[in-house]
Design goal:
Blueprint (H helix, E strand, L loop, with lengths): L1 H27 L16 E5 L6 E9 L6 E8 L7 E5 L14 E5 L12 E3 L9 E5 L16 E4 L6 E5 L14 E5 L8 E4 L6 E6 L1
Antiparallel strand pairs: 1-12, 2-3, 4-5, 6-7, 7-11, 8-9, 9-10, 9-12, 10-11
Length: 213
């Protein structure tokens, strides 16, 4: 009986430590803005490049790029443009109010939908005829996780500095096909007067931080 009391006493001592450790892990897994505040599902945020590109803003916008007159490509804004804020949406409704590292999500520009697009949800496009790059464009589907929507899903991973991140394409948790298991960074492509965001196999991804709109 005395041994049982000792075991119970030790468990009571360890419980707060265990609970604190789990809570700490959950906190460490949160994506945070540049002030250290966790990103919320209901929030709107500017995605801001950590590096300056001469003549351009560090925020993202929509531009015409290689596809007629459709303003549907995700690019760096011009220096005089304010940029467009984004919202982030979980693959599955869990009731969780926050955005987590390396969890699949939709990225949605919070702006009016151009007449040439079905939505402002980001998607990975087919390779274009000129550069053969897969440009990040709008027109994706919000929700409906699965292989048919695998190009609409992105993840946020930690960057090289505190509260900096990289947005990547790796829809393995929403699609079981072999192609979905391949990890792809996003990077800015070189183009005169435009810097479109493209899917890439480069090791150096597009590093950003988030600013509440």
């Amino acid at each position: 009986m005395k041994s049982l009391h000792i075991v119970l006493f030790l468990l009571l001592l360890l419980f707060p430590f265990t609970y604190k450790t789990i809570a700490q892990l959950q906190q460490d897994n949160l994506v945070r803005d540049h002030n250290g505040k966790p990103l919320e599902v209901t929030g709107k945020y500017f995605i801001v490049a950590t590096k300056v590109v001469m003549g351009l803003s560090r925020k993202l916008t929509l531009s015409i790029y290689l596809e007629g007159n459709c303003r549907n490509a995700v690019t760096l804004a011009q220096a005089f443009q304010p940029g467009i804020p984004c919202s982030f949406h979980h693959a599955k409704a869990t009731g969780d109010s926050y955005i987590h590292i390396l969890k699949s999500l939709n990225v949605k520009f919070e702006t009016d939908t151009p007449s040439c697009a079905n939505s402002t949800v980001w998607r990975i496009s087919d390779p274009d005829d000129k550069t053969h790059e897969r440009v990040v464009r709008i027109g994706g589907v919000l929700g409906s996780p699965g292989c048919s929507t695998s190009r609409n899903w992105f993840k946020i991973m930690t960057g090289d500095s505190p509260n900096t991140y990289k947005i990547v394409s790796h829809p393995k948790d929403v699609c079981a096909s072999p192609g979905a298991a391949i990890f792809h960074n996003l990077r800015l492509n070189f183009h005169p007067f435009k810097r479109p965001l493209v899917r890439s196999d480069d090791l150096n991804g597009f590093e950003v931080y988030f600013v509440e709109a």
